[in-house]
Design goal:
Number of strands: 9
Helix content: 40-55%
CATH class of the largest domain: Alpha Beta
Number of helices: 10
Shape: globular
Structural class: alpha/beta
Strand content: 15-25%
Distance between the termini: 37 Å
CATH topology of the largest domain: Spore Coat Polysaccharide Biosynthesis Protein SpsA, Chain A
CATH architecture of the largest domain: Alpha-Beta Complex
Amino acid sequence: METYALITAAHNEEEHIEKTLRSVTSQTLLPGKWIIVSDGSTDRTDEIVRKYAEDFSFIQLVRQERDQRRNFASKVFAQNAGIRLLSLQDFDFVGLTDADASFAPDYFQELFRKFRLDSALGLASGFIYEAVDGHFVPVSGNREWSVPGCIQMFKRECFENIGGLLPIKYGCVDTYLEIAARMRGWKGQSFPDLKIRHHRPCGRAVGVLRYSYRKGLAEYSIGYHPAFEIARLARRALSLPFTLGALAQLCGFVVASLRREKREVSPEFVAFLRREQKGRLLPFGQY
């Protein structure tokens, strides 16, 4: 039977974290350890987690004060604080889960079954669903070949090969992780039959346009090819509701280019990513 550990960074998540706590503690295959790092929370997040930790010994709450200078990398600093408390060799898998996600009781058991069927699979997740008019529907960004950051489960060897989590100034850490895994020969995949409810859609906390602008900065910072970025955003702009977001993202990418923002990823990583993206620009390529 597989053993796994979970890491969750939580900042002021009193509205949703109990949904995540219920989901994990109801699993047919429970984690050996779940470290929840409260990243400077000022609401009832800590109180809610402590209540569950009294009943489930595998839950450990860690409190750290948020350093505002760490901006969008704050979540990664919190996750790394949790990872440092783990002995990775004690687990077959290590997972990162947001504090605003929920999933079925057999989610992890089914996910590990898929790992057993494919020895090259190093990183996996389900499909993300978000609420629209009171109903949860799959998000447009779901792709079987792309693993969302809401929940990412790593085979331990894959996580070690990647070298762990890299704090990136503008975000895109989940994208970095799945690309780094492929760069080292591992496969990443999301499975449509595994449903994850994401209770706070991306961008809601900071506003959609600001989120899109930041995403443009982030994608430049990890090395996206300019032609790929333009082609992908041009396709998004064909749908009117996404036009302003696409323009905001392009502005972020252009501003980062003009500033010649320093990249926190290696030149080898950028070269690998751009080779992939050039291939996806060919006819029938994937965006």
